Fold this sequence. Notes:
11 helices, 2 strands, two-stranded antiparallel sheet, single chain, about 5% strand, mainly alpha, about 70% helix
Amino acid sequence: MASTLYVDQPSPVHRLNPVTKLVALLCIIVIVFAIPVWWAAAIVLVGVIVPAAAVSRCGGRLARIGGQILLPIVVVLFIVQGLTFPGGETPVWQWGVATVTSEGLVFALNIGARIICLVLASVLLVLTTHPGDLMSALTERGMSPKFSYIISSTLQLIPAFRDRADSILLAQQARGLAVPRNPVRRLPVLMPLLGPLVLGMFTDVEERSTAMEARGFGSTARRTSLVPVADSPAQRVARWIMPVIALAAIVVPIILEAL
Length: 259
């Protein structure tokens, strides 16, 4: 069975119902994209994501994984938008024909803040939610088991790819494959590993489908959960309040603009 990024910790965030965390993630995405200014995303980041990461005791891992994903994206975003933003008129730095404008940097800041919230909130959900619990919780709420499996398996896709790639690389190294430290020289060596990696993933999918069919996964009969996922009235209320707040983030700016 492929491992996941999930980190088991006895924290209040881990004990939350997975549906509650999924609704919170979707509402965060709606809010930061509905309010097109960087400070709205900053408020969500400082007021929601950072405290949740601290309480769940996975702030270090969140920062490490998020940094690996976000650093190249944010750097490229600021360079491209700072140099090529079509409405840029106020130069901040100029060297020859290259000119960085303040309008481009502000635009990059607004977009970058949203991307940071999106990525960090998504990674935090993966770190604090076991895919099996998420699938059980969604099925208990009446969602199709097939659709629930698609959502939960998505959380395992990257870890499964990484674990299989590491296994193939270790097997090749045991057979004498030398992997250079230089990234440029390492690329041609790693390219032949793509074939076994892709074929192995297809084999894994076939094995899973066979196992699910043998267990009646496609049955339309009502299912009962062997280990029910904990829930509470407060969380059920919160799952109604959060969408209302997200809807207000969409409607209020439209009303204010109309006035």
